[in-house]
Amino acid sequence: MQINIDTSWKKHLNEEFNKPYFAELLAFVEAEYEAHTCFPEKELIFNAFNLCAFEDVKVVIIGQDPYHDCNQANGLCFSVNDGIAFPPSLKNIFKELKDDVNKSLPESGNLESWARQGVLLLNATLTVRAHQAGSHQKKGWETFTDAVIKLISDRKENVVFLLWGGYAKKKAKLIDPKKHHILSTGHPSPLSANRGYWFGNKHFSETNFLLEQDGFQPLVW
């Protein structure tokens, strides 16, 4: 399988691509896509990187797995294709966004506009078999995406990391808190949000405040 990833990332990640685990991972993914329906579309596996160059990264949002139902996943965590109904977690993200920065509910759940402004929407696992959540976990993707998080931490400064939920919070150990901002809260899924762990976190306004403090343009969420 070809590594269809922006050159700004390739130069930093070539060493990772040459490791044995990554060759095994690509072979696994290739076989899965040949034998089963998998998501996202093969050309969108590295979409998060292709819409947000390494130099442009200002914010990182960490998800776990791509959506596993038809036509949903587009290679950006929490994001869905145009015209697709909002999954529950995305609905709660938009509700918090409205409460926090008075942003009206968007027509589309496609978060491509965030990515183009410097938000890396990174799933820890970049592929999944249709209708089988977690089916591509522990095959090597997490090793790769952990390396990406550490790369950003090591080689950039003043990035805002948004860690939503227990899984994402575990990634804090890869991030240097002296160089970066880490905002943590509950997961936007209904299970977490309805228990009071998501709503009211104000991460969107807080992120823009931190970006402006560091001399960056705030995001149009």
From TrEMBL:
It catalyses: Hydrolyzes single-stranded DNA or mismatched double-stranded DNA and polynucleotides, releasing free uracil. InterPro entries: UDG_fam1, Ura-DNA_Glyclase_AS, Uracil-DNA_glycosylase-like, Uracil-DNA_glycosylase-like_sf. It is an enzyme of class 3 (hydrolase). The gene is ung. Its main location: cytoplasm. Residues 50-211 form the Uracil-DNA glycosylase-like domain. This is Uracil-DNA glycosylase. NCBIfam families: PRK05254.1-1 (NF003588), PRK05254.1-2 (NF003589), PRK05254.1-4 (NF003591), PRK05254.1-5 (NF003592), ung (TIGR00628). Gene3D superfamilies: Uracil-DNA glycosylase-like domain. The active site is at 65 (proton acceptor). Belongs to the uracil-DNA glycosylase (UDG) superfamily. UNG family. Keywords: Cytoplasm, DNA damage, DNA repair, Glycosidase, Hydrolase. It is found in: Cytoplasm. It comes from the Bacteria. GO terms for molecular function: uracil DNA N-glycosylase activity. Its EC number is 3.2.2.27. PANTHER family: URACIL-DNA GLYCOSYLASE (PTHR11264). Excises uracil residues from the DNA which can arise as a result of misincorporation of dUMP residues by DNA polymerase or due to deamination of cytosine.
